[in-house]
Amino acid sequence: MKKIFLTLTILAGIFSLAACGKDGGGNGVDPGTEPGGGGGGTTEQARTDFVFGADVSWVTEMEKDGKKFYDADGSQKDLFRMFKDLGMNVIRLRIWVNPDGGWCAYDDVFAKAKRAQDLGMSVMLDFHYSDFFADPGTQTPPAAWNGKTHDELVALVKQHTTDFLTKLKLDKINPAYIQIGNETRHGMLWPDGQIMWQTAEEQNSWARYAELSNAGYDAAKGVFSSAKVFVHLNHAYEDNLWWFEKFSAAGGKTDIIGLSHYPQVDKDGANYISCNTDAINNIKKLAEKTGKDVIVVETGIKSADLATGATCLKAFIEEIYKVDACKGILYWEPEVYGGWKPAKYNQLGWNAYDMGAFTSDGKLSDVIKLFKN
């Protein structure tokens, strides 16, 4: 995003194609005029407490497959250097336990974290506690953890988190942010840690989930006491206060709140302006009532509709930049382009990720310039 030095007028009636949700380049954005590097809105002074960044967990696999990255003028450039030069100051990296090919396991995470840290960028780690993606619809335990009791799973979360972070510390990587579980609205490590809504088991399920989450929190704090350790939910546009009230009542711990906001997908027929407004209002409410700062740790737009999407995202960035309790925003996997898919997707028969922020020929698009500090 960019430092906001001028007032942007949003033409709300023109751009109403996109709205909220997670499925999912750029348009006429002057990278030198907006908040943090391409946002919008009006601000008289750039914030020093607001982070702009990206999750680039696929980058090493892309590089292995021969993918290269280019500035808008066509000059080839290292992705981390490109993002650093834009003004991004944080890189987010997911962690899997025993993944196919070793992607997002220790050696791969360390290599990417070192590249970021060597450039002076902060590192945000995202523990999935799975061998593959964990999200609101899938929280599959690592294969090696199958059949374990609740107490055994608590111990495994603690051990995995401690061992991984201790090794990073010995290798001189010092993360600023550590995420415990990925989009854990429905809990983690199912079925043991699944939150059982509106059942006689609901209260106990919150307690089990909180104990698993706290095992990661305590382990992370035990290795990196100054890191911001947090939990993460999808759908920033929803009222998430009730969730955090239940989590807190169950003894759950978090230093800050991580949220996802993907404003390009239709939400109940609402346009993206309504979706963005809901997200902003709910972030304010959540921060006020919980006393916790918020970071939007995932966002993105459909690459097939970069113009409208960039306008939508720009509008959101401009507004959250004005919210003191919101401390940053990160794009999720902007480096994907040209129909590239990880090997695992090919095995599963999945389509390519369609929310990258590079053009089809690997050039930096205007949308990622919204993330310039």
Feature tags:
single chain; 373 residues; alpha/beta; 8-stranded parallel barrel; 9 helices; 12% strand; disordered N terminus
Topology:
Layout: E1 51-55, H1 59-64, H2 79-86, E2 90-95, H3 106-118, E3 122-127, H4 150-170, E4 177-180, H5 202-223, E5 228-233, H6 241-249, E6 256-261, H7 272-290, E7 294-299, H8 306-320, E8 326-332, H9 343-348
Parallel strand pairs: 1-2, 1-8, 2-3, 3-4, 4-5, 5-6, 6-7, 7-8
Characterization of this structure:
It is a single chain. This protein has 373 residues and is α/β, with parallel strands linked by helices. The protein has 9 helices and 8 strands. An 8-stranded parallel barrel has the order 1-2-3-4-5-6-7-8. Strand 3, helix 4 (150-170) and strand 4 form a beta-alpha-beta unit. Helix 4 (150-170) runs parallel beside helix 5 (202-223). The protein is globular, with a radius of gyration of 20 Å. Mean pLDDT is 87; it is low at 1-19 and 21-43.
